[in-house]
From TrEMBL:
Keyword hit for Endoplasmic reticulum: yes
A GO CC term attached to the entry: endoplasmic reticulum lumen
Protein name (database record): Endoplasmic reticulum resident protein 29
Any GO BP annotation: protein secretion
Domain called ERp29 N-terminal: residue spans: 31-152
Pfam families: ERp29 (PF07749), ERp29_N (PF07912)
Annotated coiled-coil segments of the chain: none
Gene3D superfamilies with a match to the protein in the record: Endoplasmic reticulum resident protein 29, C-terminal domain, Glutaredoxin
Signal peptide extent: 1-27
Keyword Signal: yes
Length: 255
């Protein structure tokens, strides 16, 4: 028969092991992200133009956390965007459960993303897309905040030109197309030249077929990418989808 003392000692050992594991899991620092709690949440939100907050379990891991890390890392070069985490505990003192309840976030919804714009900590914009797709989350941030985030295959100068192009009359579209071609001629890196060429070809198709071309092309490229293609080709198609997403965002701005 196991004595009470032995059971007590085993419990202490398990608690110590649990604390050790938690300490090391928690030591996983996410570059570009800060941790928020109830005491500082509003103070931090109110000081930034845009804040993306991920509500999640205390020790998140796996593919969805890797996606968050990618998004957080991409925010480092955008000074007007802050990326943050709120760790919600369902045990012990139940840290930050008040914040989760405030924004109607349940444990089943983790990870749940909320975006706050212009320091308004009362109005949260919910992200409803795929939490395994970093580019989808970035597109959401850009669409709602107007801030630019680097995505594979995209060029900031051309991304900023796209909304003007889409809302312009046909004659002005032609002038903006020429502007894009002039900007492309000054590029030196091969990957930048290839990206610029995709922007220009898309602009020409829009001039020829109208804005409906964009969504049709997205469907076509997505179908190709989901088929049996090499990893290199899949990456190229992914870059093209990112550029097409810039046109989709431009269409949203036009509405």
């Amino acid at each position: 028969m196991v004595s009470v003392t032995t059971v007590a000692n085993m419990s202490l050992v398990l608690l110590a092991l649990f604390a050790f594991i938690c300490k090391h899991i928690h030591a996983d620092v996410v570059q570009g992200s800060v941790s928020l709690n109830s005491g500082v949440f509003d103070k931090i939100i109110e000081k930034h133009k845009a804040v993306l907050v991920k509500f999640d379990e205390t020790y998140p891991y796996g593919g969805k956390q890797d996606t968050f890390k990618e998004v957080a890392k991409s925010s480092v070069s955008q000074p007007e965007l802050l990326v943050a985490e709120v760790h919600v505990a369902d045990y012990g003192e139940k840290d930050n459960t008040d914040l989760a309840e405030r924004f109607a976030i349940t444990k089943e919804a983790f990870p749940a993303y909320r975006l706050f714009i212009n320091g308004n900590s009362k109005a949260a914009i919910s992200y409803t897309g795929d939490t395994l797709q970093a580019d989808s989350i970035k597109n959401f941030i850009m669409a709602e905040s107007g801030l630019w985030l680097g995505r594979p295959g995209c060029l900031e100068e051309f991304d900023k030109l796209v909304p003007d192009f889409l809302k312009a009359s046909d004659d002005k579209k032609t002038a903006l197309l020429q502007q894009a071609e002039e900007a492309a001629s000054k590029l030196t890196k091969e990957e930048d030249k290839a990206a610029a060429d995709t922007y220009i070809k898309t602009m020409k198709k829009v001039l020829d077929k109208g804005n409906s071309f964009i969504q049709d092309e997205v469907k076509r490229v997505e179908k190709l990418r989901s088929g049996k293609v090499s990893d290199n080709k899949k990456q190229q198609l992914g870059d093209r989808l990112n550029i097409l997403a810039s046109f989709q965002l431009g269409l949203k701005d036009e509405l």
